[in-house]
Design a protein that fits this description.
With 321 residues, the protein is of the alpha+beta class. Helix content is 34%, strand content 36%. The radius of gyration is 28 Å and the shape is elongated.
Length: 321
């Protein structure tokens, strides 16, 4: 009994709070990722898990002890206080379970791609990618980076269709999905002496316009640096507008071999270098989808609802004194 009394004491709660504040402040100063490190430890470190479980037990025992006292004195007061106290316990419990039971996959997807997730009963298919840019777009210095929110249209095995955006995540079957990033994937064909060596799409981070990305082609000793240039520039007085065509872009391509610059040129269709011909085909869009399976998420949402309701009705318990 003495052990349980110590485990459920307010002093222990205070020690936990002080320890977390000290850890957070120290971690923020030295790593700037204190909370992220704590969550990582909670999911992958048994010492951190054990400390958290002791804290959870402390909070649970305190909540139960408080409700037992209220039950003996005033049951209406107990009901008014129970929503907040039990919501708090459920919040800490569901957070712990969510971190440890959650499964996440990041999928680089294009139109027509089939997505197989290890926890799903059947595959998804990406029917369409709706980019955040118009095919023909005009930009000035004060323009928004993107024209709209990128979206993906996904079909499940049973024929249900979902449109997924960047935020909030949407539940598709058992999975929460949202668009984490999107970009352009130019089609590439590599030739030597008129013979096709390789063909495929290269998913690049060259959006928003002006972003530079680097890629390599397997078997070649070259580094390729690429970014998109305006198809044309329109000047009216002091204002310059840049027009981009994402279906037929113009690229700036720099080719290096062992830190030696081989070529730096503007490319629309193809470029020749050291006996090779690199041909650019019409690009396609790609999206990076974050797919999360979290069986505890409904409990977490319930805990938030209980906390919100508890904050409203808990003060009414003071009137019962």
């Amino acid at each position: 009994m003495r052990f349980l009394k110590t485990l459920g004491s307010p002093v222990l709660t205070l020690w936990f709070v002080v320890a977390f504040v000290v850890y957070y402040m120290t971690g923020s100063v030295w790593s700037e990722e204190a909370f992220a490190k704590f969550i990582s430890g909670l999911s992958g470190s048994w010492p951190v898990r054990m400390v958290y479980m002791v804290f959870l037990l402390n909070v649970t025992l305190r909540a139960i002890g408080s409700l037992i006292k209220d039950f003996r004195r005033d049951r209406i007061r107990m009901v008014l206080r129970s929503v907040l106290l039990l919501g708090m316990v459920l919040f800490f419990l569901s957070s712990f379970l969510s971190v440890n039971l959650r499964q996440t996959e990041w999928v680089l997807a294009g139109e027509g791609q089939v997505i197989n997730l290890r926890w799903e009963r059947g595959p998804f298919r990406v029917l369409k990618i709706e980019p955040a840019l118009k095919e023909l777009t005009m930009k000035i210095d004060t323009s928004e980076i993107f024209d709209s929110e990128p979206k993906a249209v996904i079909e499940t095995l049973d024929g249900k269709i979902f449109k997924i955006g960047a935020f909030p995540a949407r539940k598709v079957s058992r999975t929460y999905v949202h668009v984490l990033n999107f970009g352009l994937a130019p089609g590439l064909e590599l030739y030597k002496d008129g013979r096709l060596l390789q063909r495929g799409y290269m998913a690049l981070r060259i959006l928003p316009f002006g972003s530079v990305d680097r890629f390599k082609i397997e078997g070649l000793p070259y580094d390729f640096y690429i970014h998109i240039l305006p198809n044309r520039v329109i000047k009216r007085g002091d204002i310059s507008a840049r027009e981009y065509n994402t279906r037929s872009p113009v690229y700036n391509l720099e080719i290096l071999k062992a830190d030696r610059k081989i070529l730096n040129t503007t490319v629309e269709r193809e470029v020749s270098f050291e006996g090779y011909v690199l041909r650019f085909l019409r690009p396609v869009y790609w999206e990076l989808l974050e797919c999360v399976y979290d069986p505890v998420y409904p409990l977490f949402l319930l805990s938030l609802g209980m906390l919100a309701l508890g904050v409203i009705i808990y003060p009414l318990s003071w009137l019962r004194k």
